[in-house]
Design a protein that fits this description.
With about 90 residues, the protein is mostly helical. Helix content is about 50%, strand content about 10%. A hairpin with a 2-residue loop joins strand 1 and strand 2. The protein is elongated and about 90 Å long.
Amino acid sequence: PIVGARPMKRVLQKDVINELSKVMLSGEFVSGDTIYIDTDKNGLVFGKEPCKGAEKPKADPAPKKKAPAKKEKDLEALKKATKDVEDAVKDIEE
């Protein structure tokens, strides 16, 4: 790669995040707005409408159900093992 992650981060902070922060503080946008970034001869342009030739964002697909996490699986296995031991102790006592 020609440019590493840190120099790229600095460019994004300087050119995008700082300018976007100024626009947000001016009250031009409110919470929940989708902000589109484009460029013109003066630099970055922030707007509420998609840039010319840009695709509109697609709606987020329905969230997928996550498989039980390893921790949850381990907990279930531990509960089952505990019950098995308790049952074995009861059998011995009887």
